[in-house]
Design a protein that fits this description.
This protein is α/β, with parallel strands linked by helices and about 525 residues long. It has helices spanning about 30-40, 40-50, 85-100, 120-135, 165-190, 200-215, 225-230, 230-240, 295-305, 355-365, 380-385, 400-410, 445-455, 485-500, and strands at about 1-5, 15-25, 25-30, 60-65, 70-75, 105-110, 155-160, 215-220, 245-255, 265, 270-275, 315-325, 335, 345, 370-375, 390-395, 415, 435, 460-465, 470, 480. It is found in: Cytoplasm.
């Protein structure tokens, strides 16, 4: 789908569909009001008949509105005007995208990006409109013999901005939005791929392709190189599979000085998790193909960041393997030695994610990082604690946690700062090794984070437990692409700071005090 930015009046758009908003109590937005005036009150008359009240999530498709050049006008409910915030804006965009797939509109101009959202500017409005639209229209039909022809998406999608002077901001927002959406699509595609396709080798090939496409560096460590590096904990998990493990290293030098400390993203890459000898129940085990959601997310984030050419040095580390039962597999009671030299008593082989991540966190020390963020579908306990709304966030630095939470709030990809108090470390005591790999049912997500913290003492570190947010089950089953938006916004904020710019968050959008001059143009 081709995206464009435009400044122009809605009644002059010679396209298949124009999208405008309606607040509750049938209050028209500026663009909708202009269409109503040119049509001699046609839209107002339709609303007064009760076909639509403007409730958030509602739509009404009108054909052949008098004196307009477009074939259709899609009215989108915005809810109460005084309660219209970022969340409601995203929902309106999502609603409009869904409604458009049920029409044959090949070219669309949306005026929802002209709306006013408190503390947000044109650049943000366009960025979010692009990200949410592409997120909503995403389909995974790669593995189907036929595509679903009942769902049609526009060929050309134009986002309107209030003034000609907003075009440059709109173009910047569009470029960012497309990069983020492409990163999310990559993350979804990888997550949705079946385990017989998305193997450790497949992930490595995808990572190398990204590096080659965007001028970054890629290094893939095979089993021998992983052994030479001393990653005993990682290798212990991989033993049960017929497929060899891979350790992926991507490097992007976007800062002016290549010696600047990089931001390191670590992603858990278990391409299928059977639980190993501590075998999982059969129900919903197919969803364990999503256990490489952390790897997919950091690859998606890396792709977006390098496409945006952020002035940062960024490193991605991905330990990837399968966790399978076999005669060679890791057993409960085994003791393994991590790359750091610390020993681990394995009480449950289904707590394998931390066993591969701990060696990656030790490996990260060599880069002398500005910060390290690991991303993992780590614990079912996090789902019990936070459901499927917020990502669990743990950090050794409160300032890093605050920055990540703020980034998530900015883009609607929320995280919640969880405790990482010293008292919880007691849960990991072992009589036979330096630590156990689980701490029991109570505080399971916290004890998992405590385990990882023991390997991340050399730098500022944060852990994102995305077990509840990386994918959806049920009729909407599939990867969500999270937390790519959060991580990209965090990196964008770091880039703004590095350039001496004010972080975009909270910068108020210019108020429209008169009819935008673009409504005299087409």
């Amino acid at each position: 789908m081709e995206f464009n930015i435009k400044s122009g009046s809605p009644e002059k758009q010679r396209v298949a569909c124009v999208v405008v908003g309606v607040y509750e109590s049938r209050k028209l937005t500026l663009a909708a009001d202009l269409l109503d005036r040119i049509s001699n009150g046609f839209i107002g008359d339709v609303l007064r008949r009760g076909d639509m009240e403007g409730k958030l999530g509602s739509t009404l498709l009108l054909h052949s509105v008098p004196h307009t050049l477009c074939d259709r006008v899609l009215l989108v409910g915005l809810g109460k005007e005084r309660e219209f915030r970022a969340k409601e804006y995203r929902e309106a965009i999502r609603t409009s995208a869904r409604a458009l797939t049920q029409t044959s509109s090949s070219e669309v101009v949306s005026y929802l990006s002209e709306l006013s959202v408190k503390k947000h500017d044109v650049e943000w409005m366009v960025e979010q409109a692009c990200v949410v639209t592409l997120d909503t229209l995403y389909r995974c039909d790669t593995y189907k013999s036929r595509q679903d022809e009942s769902v049609r998406e526009p060929r050309k999608f134009t986002l309107a901005v209030p003034r000609r002077s907003d075009l440059a901001d709109g173009e910047r927002g569009l470029a960012r939005g497309q990069a983020i959406a492409a990163g999310m699509k990559l993350t979804k595609d990888l997550g949705n791929a079946p385990g017989n396709v998305c193997t450790p080798d497949y992930l490595a090939h995808q990572a190398r392709a990204i590096a080659e496409s965007f001028g970054a560096e890629a290094e893939i460590l095979d089993k021998a190189a992983i052994e030479e590096a001393g990653m005993g904990s990682f290798l212990a998990v991989a033993k049960g599979s017929e497929l060899e493990p891979r350790f992926i290293v991507l490097r992007y030098f976007g800062a002016k000085d290549k010696a600047d400390k990089p931001f390191v993203l670590v992603g858990k890459g278990i391409t299928f998790d059977s639980g190993g000898i501590s075998l999982k129940p059969g129900e919903a085990m197919d969803e364990m193909k999503y256990d490489m959601g952390g790897a997919a997310a950091v690859l998606g984030t890396f792709r977006a960041a390098v496409e945006m050419k952020l002035p940062l040095n960024i490193v991605v580390l991905i330990p990837t393997c399968e966790n399978m039962p076999s005669g060679r597999a890791l057993k409960p009671g085994d003791i393994v030695t991590s790359m750091s030299g610390q020993t681990i008593e394995v009480l449950n082989t289904d707590a394998e994610g931390r066993l591969i991540l701990c060696d990656a966190l030790t490996y990260a020390e060599r880069f002398e990082p500005a910060a390290v963020i690991d991303v993992a579908t780590l614990t079912g306990a996090c789902i019990i604690a936070l459901g499927h709304v917020a990502t669990g966030l743990y950090s050794s630095q409160d300032s890093l946690a605050r920055d990540l939470v703020a980034a998530g709030e900015e883009v609607g990809d929320r995280a919640w700062h969880m405790p990482l108090w010293e008292e919880y470390q007691e849960l990991l005591k072992s009589p036979f090794a330096d630590m156990a790999n689980i701490g029991g049912r109570a505080g399971g997500s916290i004890s998992a984070a405590c385990f990882l913290s023991r390997f991340a003492k050399a730098y500022d570190w944060a852990h994102l437990d995305i077990a509840g947010t990386a994918w959806k089950s049920g009729k909407d089953k599939g990867s969500t692409g999270r937390p790519v938006p959060l991580l990209v916004q965090y990196l964008q904020d770091r880039a703004d700071i590095a350039l001496g710019n004010v972080v975009r968050r909270g910068r108020p959008r210019r108020e429209v005090t008169e009819a935008p001059d673009q409504h005299d143009a087409d």
